[in-house]
Each structure stands twice: as structure tokens, then as C-alpha cells.
Amino acid sequence: MKKYGIVVPMALLSCMMAVLVLASTPEQRKSRHITLRAIQASVEHTLPEAHEMFKRAYELDPGNNEAAYAYGISLISMAQDSAQLHNGLSLVRQYVDAYPEDYDETSYYAYLCRRIGIFDESQRVLTRLSEYYPDKSELLASLAEIATLKDDRQTARDYYTRFEKIEGQSPDLSLRKMALWLQDKDTASAIGEADRLIAASPAIPDFYVLKGNLYAFLNKPDSALGYYKRAEAIAPEDGAVKLSLVNFYNENGDTAAYDREVYSALLLDDIDLDVKLQLLAEYVTPLLERKGNTEHADYLLSALRDQYPHEAGIQDFSSRFSAAKHNWKEAVEQIQIAIDMDPANKGYKAQKVSYLVADERYEEAIREYEAARDTANPQIEMFFYGVAAYTGAERDKEALAESKRVLKLIMPNVEPTDTLTEASGANLNSRGLKVVGTIYSLMGDIYFREKDMPNVNLMYTNALRLNPDDASALNNYAYYLSESGGDLDTALKISRKAIDEDPENSSYLDTYAWILFRKQDYKEALEYQEKAMKFSEGPSVELYEHLGDIQFMNGLPEDAVKSWEQGLMLDPDNKLLQKKVKHKTYFYE
User: Fold this and answer.
1) d(C-alpha 59, C-alpha 67), whole Å
2) Are 126 and 138 in contact (CB under 8 A)?
3) DSSP secondary-structure letter at 468?
């Protein structure tokens, strides 16, 4: 479908009224009458008709600059290739050159040229326009940016100097000039620019922060810290100053000072809550990644909750933090507080269902899901959390029915049993693709439990067509293939791709090792199973049993028995493990 976007400036309308009486030939008069009708159509938002009328007016009189402008803008908005784009620009240029003092339309033409990389033309018309409007500082800023893009740094600095005479000094302007000096490897001039700012306004802390940032960029941490400290001495409660110290200590590995400054920053009223939450996220993420002690992070978050007792966003953050620590019970309680504070937030409700599913509280998750799914436009992720709840509760019939209902809701033109093509998900964004792909994967899980491998293959083929890099789907499909007597080479290839997506995931490493075991490649299987044990977040019956099986086949029967015993401690009723431990040998299932 063609898209029309005609911008009719008031200046153009005024010009039309003036030149209408000057039209001398019948074609010119007709052209101008059609242009006026086209302007009226564009005002009334009947844009396709306006487009055709501007085109006709221009064809009748190519000298009709006003029609040329509007027709050109319309062509640009519809352009499918560079030829159409440049044709539209040439028509707009006709108007701009006819009325060089038209500030708005010349500026817009220059913007269009700059956007597609025609820098010389953009510079030409802006230079001419700045001669008409020498006090318009924004023209000088635009010319400086174009000169920078053309790598003409001296010209860019000259324009910034002229800009400064009109607007005065500012950190942003000095930063731009400093960047140009640094590109020329002239650090002395860059430092001199920062010194000019400080000398002009020695009581403004931002200027000291700017110079500290410059020294940090130049890898002179002692000098950088000195200027941050001078800024702090001037304004100890200034949020920007505090954040500069936080970043400095973090980047230089001074954990004690970093902790201290983060805590101070969280207590400052001068820093927005969103910034504080981002700061806290940056603080806790490395702790979670290295499974470090989160006690201090818990304290910081508690302090923030005390400071903002009525902010749902903090409860949301707290729930995500608890979830990252796999403390699902606490995550559910915290997100419920956020829901109570902001009951219209659909994302919070979806989070609660996801936490309940993760905590294996499937029946609660189903009740929450069923209460939310029929409301107006629930968050799309809610659907796969709901299907996951039915699946986890082993209510397979309902899970399949709900999956098919949701798939039909999201993709009305596709049957759930169809084999998808590359075009099937064309109308879905990344979130939609993830949701639909996950639902297909969950259906595949159910069909595997029912030993319906044709449908397992169909569901996972569809899931991976929509989201080929879904590591979880890759891993599950590979495992199902290996367990059902499928093509082990294909299973190994799919499993390898899952590991490439997430190389430290113990479940994916376990699957890969188990497929190697099935292929009787016992030595390499042991290597990957040991990696799976290394990266495991907690003891697992399956990991210990697989390790024992692989150790046994590698001629390590004593190690194998110890591994089986570890698994049996976790699942004392496991008959197969009991048998292996009792007879100290591997049994084929």
C-alpha cells in the first residue's frame, strides 16, 4: 500500500495567493487553481487525491514552484528506490532555490539531504540561509555538524565559535569542540577548552566533571578523580557529581569506594528514581552473574524501598531481583504489592504468573491467568506463561486447547497444525515471535509425553522457524530426538547450536553429553557432562545419573557408583538408580 505524506507550508499557501493573479497562460492559471484545490485536499487529509492534484498541477506548469515542492515531498514520502527519492528532492530544491529566504522549507530540505548523505547540498542551502538569518544559532550548529560529518574539523570549530558568541558557553558545546580537538590528537587544546569553561564559571560543578571526564578518557585517573572531588566540594548533594564518582570507582575497580558512593547516590533527592534503579541494577548484575554475596545489595534495595514506600517500580525491581536469586516466593509477594499499587499494569500481572510457574505453583498460576486472559489486551507474554502453567500442572488437554486458541488469536490466518513458512510470522514483532515460538515448543513437550513424535517434530520445526536461535527449544528438541530413537547426528547438531547460544547452561551441556553417550562417544561425553556439573546451579538427579552412566562406560565403575549414590540421595524412590547402586553396574533401560 502506498503511503502519502504531503506537508503544505503556510508560506506556500501565501505565495500561491500572490502568484495566482500573475499567471499569464491558461496552463499556468489552471495549474495554480489545481494547486489551491490540492492544498485544500491536504488540509482535509485526503492525501492520495492531493498527491494526484499536485502532480497534475506540476505537469501543467513545471515552473509552478509551489506545486513542485508539494509534489516533491509526496514523492519522497512514497519513494521505493533512490531514483524516486532524488526526483522528489530535485522538485523540492526548485522551490527552495526560488525562495531562498523561506526558513522552514529550506531547513527541512537541508535535513532531508543530510539524512541521505548529500552533505554538500545541505551545506550549500544552509550557508545561504545563514546569510539571511545570521542570528539563528541553530543554523550554525547544523553547519558545524555537517562539517564534522565531512571530516572538516576546523570549519566545524569555526561554526561552533560563532554559535558560542550568540548562545554563550555551555558544557555540551565545549564537549563537541573537545571531541574535535581530540580527533586531531590535540589534547592540550581539548584541556584548554575545559579550562575556559571553569575560568568563566568557577562555581559550576558540571564544568569540573567535564574536565574529570576528559582526564578519564585520556587515561589519567588521578587527575580525573581530583576534578571529580573538586566538583563534589562545590556541590556535595549534586546528583551528576555523585554519579560521576560512582562510575569512576566502578571502572577503576575500587569496590569499597564504589559501594559507598552507590549508597550515597541512592539517598540523594537530586537523582531521579529511574536513574537510581538503573544504578542499582548495574550494581547487582555482576553479583548475580558471579553468584556473589547479595547481602549489601539487599540492604541498598531495602533503603530505597524505605525512601519510596509508595512506588510500584521499586516493588517491581525487588521482585525481579528476588526472581534472579530464584526466591520465587518473595518475588510473588513483591510483585503482588506492585499490582496492588498499580492494578492496571498488565506487565506486573504477567510477571506474577511467570513467578508462580517458576515456583511450580501451577494451579495458582492457572487461576491468575484465567482471571487476566479475558481482560482487554493482556500483555502478550501472559499467554505463554498461562500455557506453561497448564503444561506444568499436566493438564495437557487444556494446555493444548489453550495453545491452539492463543495461536489462532495471534495468527488468525494460520491453523495450529499447519507447517509454517518463513512468511508465517511476518506480521509479528520480536515479542510476538517469541511468544508464538514458545507456545509451539510447549505443545511439542506435551506431544512428547504422549509419544506422538510426528507432532513433536512439527511443533518444534515451527517453533524454530519463528525463532531459530531459541536455545531452550533447540535443547529440548535435541533431547527428544535422542530419547525417541531419532537421528542422533541431527540431534547433536541441534544441541550444539543451543550450547553456542548459552555455553554455560548445565542443562544444554547435559543434553549434548547424553547425545554423545547415545552415539557411544564416551570420552567426549564425559568432558561435556563434567562441564554440566561445573555450571549447575544446584544438585540434580538427572545430572548425577547421567554422569554415573558416562563414567561407567569410560571404565570408571567406582566413580560411577558414587555419582549414582548422589542421585539416589536426591531421589530415594528411583528404582533404576537403586538397581544401579545395588549391582554396581549400568543397566540399559
Assistant:
1) 9
2) no
3) T
Question: Using CA of residue 366, residue 371, residue 373, residue 377, what is the dihedral sign?
Answer: negative
Looking at residue 385, its amino acid is: Y
Q: 91: which residues sit within 8 A by CB, 6+ positions away? A: 58, 68, 69, 71, 72, 75
Residue range 525-559, pLDDT digits in tens: 999 999 999 998 888 899 999 999 999 999 999 99
pLDDT at 220: 95
Look up residue 414 and give its DSSP letter: S
Measured CA to CA in angstroms, residue 453 lies from 277, 472, 489, 491 at distances of 47, 18, 17, 14
In contact, 207 and 197? CB cutoff 8 Å: yes
Q: Which of 112, 102, 47, 43 is nearest to 76 (CA)?
A: 112
d(C-alpha 272, C-alpha 55), whole Å: 52
Say how many CA atoms lie within 13 Å of 111 toward its Cβ: 10
Strand residues in 203-326 grouped as ranges (E) = none
Taking the CA atoms of residue 71, residue 74, residue 76 and residue 81 in that order, the dihedral angle to the nearest 10 degrees is -100
Q: Using DSSP, how many helices (H) and how many strands (E) does the chain show?
A: 32, 0
Q: Are 322 and 330 in contact (CB under 8 A)?
A: yes
Contact status, residue 551 vs residue 560, Cβ threshold 8 Å: yes
CA 15 to chain centre: 46
Cell numbers given for 499: 550450547
C-alpha cell of residue 55: 502532480
Neighbours of 587 (CB within 10 A): 10
One DSSP character per residue, 10-35 reads: HHHHHHHHHHHTT--SHHHHHHHHHH
Q: 433 and 466 in contact (C-beta within 8 Å)?
A: yes
Dihedral sign for Cα 44, 46, 47, 50, please.
negative
**Residue 382 pLDDT exceeds 50:** yes
Contact 492, 474 (CB under 8 A): no
Distance in angstroms (rounded) separating the CA atoms of residues 552 and 391: 35
Q: Give tens-digit pLDDT for 485-529.
A: 878 999 999 999 999 999 999 999 999 999 999 999 999 999 999
Query: Inter-axis angle of helices 430-449 and 381-392, to 10 degrees?
Result: 10
- CA angle (196 as vertex; 191, 198 as ends), nearest 5: 95
Amino acid identity for residue 92 in this structure: V
389 dihedral zone (left: phi>0; alpha: psi -120 to 50; beta): alpha
What percent of the chain is helix, strand and coil (3-state, nearest 5)?
75, 0, 25
Give CA–CA dist 362/396, Å, rounded. 13
Quickly tell me which residue has 499567471 as its cell. Answer: 23
- Torsion (CA) 557, 558, 561, 566 in degrees, nearest 10: -140
